[in-house]
Design brief:
single chain; 2 domains; 8-stranded antiparallel beta sheet; elongated; signal
Length: 190
């Protein structure tokens, strides 16, 4: 009888810990699409991740791009027919194209050198809309001289950097339309 009580207690504790871990986040709490994307990225970078901790770090870096409804398509070093990396053995680069319903289009680039315990993540968010919308972003950032610096501008485009960061706002306006590309770069230490 004691055996069954102990077994029941262990099962309750086991399920409680699983539910608790999921409520606090972690890889097991992600949707299937997110899990698949993170698994692909880590595999293509050639990173060993038996406990999913690297996937969680990558997610924490790119989570803003994974909000809402999205689709992803990735390319690596051997997708190009003329690539010399056709055997798939070379790892260290993957680029993900991610159109979304609400936050535009994201281009996520992941680079990992073989002997360096760090992943460099470059994120570009592409937003397209009205000329007035793009000019509003331009004026907001241009006038905030404490945080932003205009690197270059013309009557059709502007290139603005956030001070102290690898973070840029690249703006382009046409007849009635405008585009803003937000570019950021991050380091994920392993």
């Amino acid at each position: 009888m004691k055996f069954y009580k102990l077994l029941a207690l262990l099962l309750v504790v086991s399920f409680s810990q699983t539910s608790l871990a999921q409520s606090f986040g972690g890889f097991d709490s992600y949707g299937e699409g997110t899990k698949s994307l993170l698994t692909t990225v880590v595999k293509q970078l050639g990173v060993s991740d038996p406990d999913n901790s690297v996937k969680v770090k990558v997610f924490d870096t790119i989570d803003v791009a994974l909000e809402g409804n999205w689709y992803s398509y990735w390319v690596g070093m051997n997708d190009l027919a003329s690539s010399k990396y056709q055997d798939g053995a070379e790892k260290g680069f993957v680029q993900v194209m991610l159109p979304t319903n609400d936050s535009g289009i994201w281009i996520l680039t992941f680079n990992k050198a073989k002997d360096i315990p760090q992943i460099i993540v470059s994120m570009a968010q592409i937003r397209h809309g009205s000329q007035d919308g793009a000019l509003s972003v331009y004026n907001e950032k241009k006038n905030d001289t404490e945080n932003y610096e205009v690197k270059n501008e013309s009557d059709k485009f502007a290139f603005i950097q956030e001070k102290g960061r690898v973070a840029f706002s690249i703006l382009n306006v046409g007849t009635g339309t405008g585009s803003v590309v937000y570019f950021n770069q991050f380091a994920v230490d392993l």
